[in-house]
Amino acid sequence: QVQLVESGGGLVQSGGSLRLSCAASGRAFSSYTVGWFRQAPGTERDLVAAILWSVDMTYYADSVKGRFAISRDNAKNTVYLQMNSLKPEDTAVYFCAAQAPYGSPSLYRKRDEYNSWGQGTQVTVSS
Questions:
Q1: What is the reported pLDDT for 54?
Q2: Which distant-in-sequence residues (6+ apart) come within 8 Å of 118 by Cβ?
Q3: What's the confidence (pLDDT) of residue 58?
């Protein structure tokens, strides 16, 4: 497993932007598929974006497509989630998570395949 630390959450007005960071310690992050999940009170923890290690591919949930962008800087062992045009319904605790290194890229949607998790960072969007 790899240790993950999220940062960048906060309070922002509707229409604003935030950039979340997920810093990994230990092994080279480039070999991991990484996902950003979010969980609002009383709801499931859902995948909102993922970036695959082996192919130049990203995934976005329909609810964030066109507004969020996931990227990685392998030199800094960090994955980012740029969130633009934020809405009150984006309010949640955001978690980054990583699958096992060199895992199957086809499993990026499976929450159970993510075995390293950060502590979460709160994002609150006011109307």
A1: 81
A2: 4, 5, 6, 22, 95, 96, 97
A3: 95
Q: Are 35 and 94 in contact (CB under 8 A)?
A: no
Regions of the chain short of the pLDDT cut 50 = none
**Tokens standing for residue 110:** 């499976």
- Please name which of 125, 110, 107, 113 lies closest in space to residue 52, comparing C-alpha atoms: 107
For 106, list phi and psi in degrees, rounded to 5: -70, -10
Least Cα distance to 71 among 31, 17, 22, 119 occurs for 22
The predicted pLDDT at position 105 comes to: 82
Residue 94's closest CA among 19, 13, 25? 19
Task: Concatenate the DSSP letters of all residues of 112-127 into one string.
Answer: GGEEEE---EEEEEE-
